[in-house]
Specification:
This protein has 10 helices and 13 strands. It is α+β, with helices and mostly antiparallel strands. The strands form 3 sheets. Strands 3-2-1-6-5-4 form a 6-stranded antiparallel sheet. Strands 8-10-11-13-12 form a 5-stranded mixed sheet. A two-stranded antiparallel sheet has the order 7-9. The longest helix has about 80 residues. About 25% of the residues are buried.
């Protein structure tokens, strides 16, 4: 269960880390932009307080200050009245939606303040409140109450950096999501590949054990069978006419079973051993026709061309006979269509019959040894056929079709003779 959920857990962890990192970085960048905004406003107020505290009633001075710092507005406030501003407007009342009344009063009493007071379209605006003495206050000396406040507003000039931070945050979130998604599919593919590898390794181990068992069983059974056959033939020869009709039939039946067991042991040996192949160039159509002649109930439609392959003719004939025999057992009067074509360095040979086909449940076990469900079948035919074809450098597989059964062989081509 944990192994199956591992790709999802990995993706969720990656997504959480990516989102967290993106959120932290964007918040730090936003904080840096806001801090820079506040420092610019604070610096402007400090410069004005130090060098030009008494010349602010002149609207031109405020306009120059506004332009030099690219501020949104610079105002000189006394009480609740704006005496002058950088826009050159005549005196007017304080806009309390923009100004903080408490900070205005505090600045009028001599305490500066800089803060993010309001937002426009999600963009924060910094507002600085700086006490500046009026002309009469300066003449009366220090310690007198300051009655005027320089108000500096800034925010628009940082709109583009703020938008860049927002775009970077969105890009980081999307990238984190896409990275987590890619990681999920990568981990899922790796998990599936590992599952298939484990299954293949287990199947290979089982096949090796089965081959060792088959070799041992075949060797243990083969010699006794030869002895039984020899004794039965000797017995039949010595008794002659004395066997009678019933006795002769019994001996014949026993010899038939001995022959069947001999074929099974031969298949077991072929399945479990690596007996050397004798390869040669042969026309695959001729081999199909030879195998078809042993199954006269079938109608085999084979191309009249000659496509040459490099195979062990005896073993490939055994494979073709097995495939055609299976078609005949599924339907005695079946028609088998044979198609031959070239695919790169291999020759594809498809045998498609019009029989009842193979159920989906059986398809998964077609090439497994001892998986036959036919009466009297030992389940070695297709397993042996696949092994023989693979030893010749080819492949044998089942192709699912709407009707009938279709097997495809891919065999190494030969440079002798014409190719399709």
């Amino acid at each position: 269960m944990v192994r199956r959920a591992a790709p999802l857990l990995l993706a969720v962890s990656s997504l959480g880390f990516g989102f967290g990192a993106a959120a932290w970085l964007s918040s730090e960048a936003q904080a840096a932009v806001e801090q820079l905004l506040l420092e610019q406003v604070r610096g402007a107020g400090a410069v004005v307080q130090a060098f030009a505290p008494t010349r602010l009633e002149d609207g031109a001075a405020l306009k120059r200050l506004k332009a030099s710092g690219d501020f949104d507005e610079v105002s000189l406030v006394e009480g609740k009245q704006v005496l002058a501003d950088g826009a050159g407007l005549p005196a007017h009342g304080v806009d309390l939606l923009r100004f903080d009344a408490a900070k205005l009063d505090a600045a009028a009493a001599g305490t500066s303040a800089v803060a993010l007071d309001y937002e426009v379209g999600g963009l924060p605006f910094a507002v600085g409140y700086f006490p500046v003495p009026g002309p009469l206050d300066s003449a009366r000396g220090r310690g007198e109450r300051v009655g005027r406040v320089l108000v500096v507003e800034a925010g628009s000039r940082f709109a583009e950096p703020a938008r860049r931070v927002a775009r970077a945050r969105t890009t980081a979130f999307v990238s984190s999501f896409m990275g987590a998604l890619a990681l999920f599919f990568l981990a899922l593919a790796w998990s599936r590949l590992e599952t298939r590898w484990r299954a293949a390794a287990a199947q290979a181990a089982f096949a090796q054990a089965l081959q060792r068992f088959a070799a041992m069983a075949a060797h243990e059974v083969r010699n006794p069978l030869a002895t039984i056959r020899g004794l039965l033939e000797l017995y039949r020869e010595r008794r002659g006419e004395g066997l009678g009709e019933d006795g002769a039939r019994v001996v014949k039946d026993v010899l038939g079973e001995v022959d069947r067991l001999s074929r099974v042991t031969g298949d077991l040996l072929d399945l479990s051993s690596e007996r050397p192949l004798s390869t040669e160039s042969r026309a695959v159509e001729e081999l199909v026709k030879e195998a078809a002649s042993l199954n006269p109930s079938l109608t085999v439609r084979c191309p009249e061309t000659k496509t040459w392959v490099e195979v062990d003719a005896l073993r490939l004939g055994q494979v073709l006979q097995n495939l055609l025999r299976n078609a005949a057992q599924a339907r005695a009067d079946a028609t088998v269509n044979v198609e031959v074509k070239r695919e790169g360095e291999l020759i594809s040979v498809s045998l498609h019959d019009d029989g009842p086909g193979v159920s989906a449940a059986k398809q998964e076990r077609l090439f497994q040894p001892f998986a036959s469900e036919k009466p009297g079948g030992h389940g070695l035919g297709l397993a042996l056929s696949q092994r023989l074809v693979e030893r010749m450098g080819g492949t044998l597989r089942f192709i699912s079709t709407a009707r009938g059964a279709c097997f495809e062989l891919r065999l190494p081509k030969s440079d002798v003779g014409p190719l399709v």
